[in-house]
Every structure is written in C-alpha cells, then in structure tokens.
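Lab notebook, design round three. We kept the backbone fixed and only want residue identities now. Task for the bench partner: fill in a sequence for the structure below.
Input structure tokens:
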C-alpha cells in the first residue's frame, strides 16, 4: 500500500466523512473503495465487467459462422459429399 496526499473540496470532504460514518469505515477506506469502484479494480466481478465492456462488439463486422465456414471450406458439406459421389 502506498501513502498519497490529495486536495479535495470542502464539499467532497463533507460527503466523504458522511459516507465513512454511515459505512463505519475510515475516510481512507472510503476513498479506496470509491477508487476501486471507479477504476473497476480490486473486485473480480468488476474486473470481469471491464473485460466484457472492453471486448464487446469487436467481432460485430465478422461474418456469421455459416458464412465464415463456406468462405474457409469453399463448398457446403452437401456439395463436398456430392462431389465425392455420395
């Protein structure tokens, strides 16, 4: 763990103190939790959500499986079987 100092507004300090009191934690712990939430860090589920968000849609323009299969194989299974005399 690293020690750091930050400047926050009086309003932020008031809200932070209120949150810390309501959760019965220190202000430092409240800041760590807020940072973890904002950065999707320290929480396996949040990390999984971050991965899903970062990869969602990367294959949107890829062909569907049958199209890809035809492009790779060149012919359908039926066409290949007929060409083989079956």
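Proposed sequence:
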């Amino acid at each position: 763990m690293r020690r750091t100092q930050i400047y926050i507004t009086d309003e932020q300090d008031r809200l932070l103190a209120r949150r810390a009191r309501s959760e019965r934690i220190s202000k430092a712990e409240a800041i760590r939790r807020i940072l973890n939430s904002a950065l999707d860090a320290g929480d396996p589920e949040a990390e999984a959500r971050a991965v899903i968000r970062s990869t969602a849609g990367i294959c949107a323009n890829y062909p569907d499986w049958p199209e890809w299969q035809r492009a790779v194989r060149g012919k359908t299974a039926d066409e290949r079987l007929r060409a083989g005399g079956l």
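Keep this in mind before ordering anything: The helical segments are 10-23, 27-39, 44-55, 65-73, 77-83.
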